[in-house]
UniProtKB/TrEMBL annotation:
Keywords, in A-Z order: Cell membrane, Membrane, Transmembrane, Transmembrane helix
Subcellular location: Cell membrane
Protein name: Membrane protein
Residue intervals passing through the bilayer: 7-27, 47-67, 74-93, 105-124, 145-164
A Pfam match: DUF2179
Length: 278
């Protein structure tokens, strides 16, 4: 039970953030959304239906279909995420006043929806809807999941233009874009580390220096020069952002002509990062 407490709390917290975004920012400022949430908002504007109820009703048939796609554990978290979002949207509903600046409302909507969905996704759940459809399309027709979700969201937003107007639809696009960036930020992790690929004729010496002086693991890979055809050893190492300058100095002190490529990595797992070294 203990291992399920953290993801469940993350899903509940994410559902609450999502509901605040919908009820406090999106609905009072008459913004739409992508996916099933966008459809629920359009039906709310037209007929006054509760968005939480509509989201839940539309997802129920997909739960049975999605069992073959997700598996038992993921489907349970998906059901929990969808039900939590629906209940939270219903509980936090109220007659809130619109924000004076619609751009500000769009930004806050995107940040809160992205933060909420990011927590739910990070916990291993989803809010159902287009995510289930996209995974089924990918499984049976080999379509990209991202492409399917983008096309569905675009279709919903374009359709909502006739209800909320062109200007509010454009603000909705801003909210959706901001939300997608925040989701990536939350899911991929808050701490950015650095990975380096090092090509040098003194690879062994560099490896020993990094291992003993920085206490970081180094992986040696076999490579071959494309022009010379000679065999070379390629080093791969992951360090924290603060350790990057020291690593560069160590490499330069041994081989000033070493070829080094550094790039960002997120959510590093393993010894020295997520748990202490023995």
């Amino acid at each position: 039970m203990y291992k399920h407490i953290k993801p469940v709390l993350m899903i509940l917290t994410g559902a609450f953030l999502f509901s605040i975004a919908i009820n406090y920012f999106a609905i009072p400022n008459k913004l739409a959304e992508g996916g099933f949430t966008g459809i629920a908002l359009v039906l709310h504007y037209l007929f006054g239906y509760s968005p939480g109820t509509v989201i839940l009703v539309m997802n129920i048939p997909l739960f049975f279909i999605g069992y073959k796609v997700f598996g038992k554990r993921a489907l349970l978290y998906t059901i929990l995420g969808t039900v939590s979002v629906s209940v939270a949207v219903w509980l936090t509903a109220g007659d809130y006043k619109p924000v004076g600046d619609p751009l500000l409302a769009a930004l806050y909507t995107g940040v809160l929806i992205g933060g909420g969905l990011g927590l739910i996704f990070r916990a291993g759940g989803t809010t159902g809807g287009v995510d289930i459809i996209a995974r089924m399309v990918h499984k049976y027709w080999d379509w990209s999941i991202g492409r399917t979700m983008f096309l569905f969201d675009l279709l919903v937003i374009v359709g909502s233009t006739f209800i909320i107007g062109r200007e509010k639809a454009m603000y909705t696009v801003v909210a959706v874009f901001v939300g997608s960036r925040v989701i990536d930020f939350v899911v991929e992790g808050l701490n950015t580390s650095k990975a380096a690929t090092i090509i040098s004729s003194k690879a062994v010496s560099i490896s020993e220096k990094i291992t003993w002086e920085m206490e970081r693991g180094v992986t040696l890979l076999k490579g071959r020069g494309g022009y010379t055809g000679t065999d070379k050893e390629v080093l791969y190492v992951v360090v924290s952002r603060n350790e990057l300058p020291k690593m560069k100095q160590l490499i330069h002190s041994i081989d000033p002509y070493a070829f080094v490529v550094v790039h960002d990595v997120r959510d590093v797992l393993g010894e020295g990062f997520t748990y202490d070294r023995e």
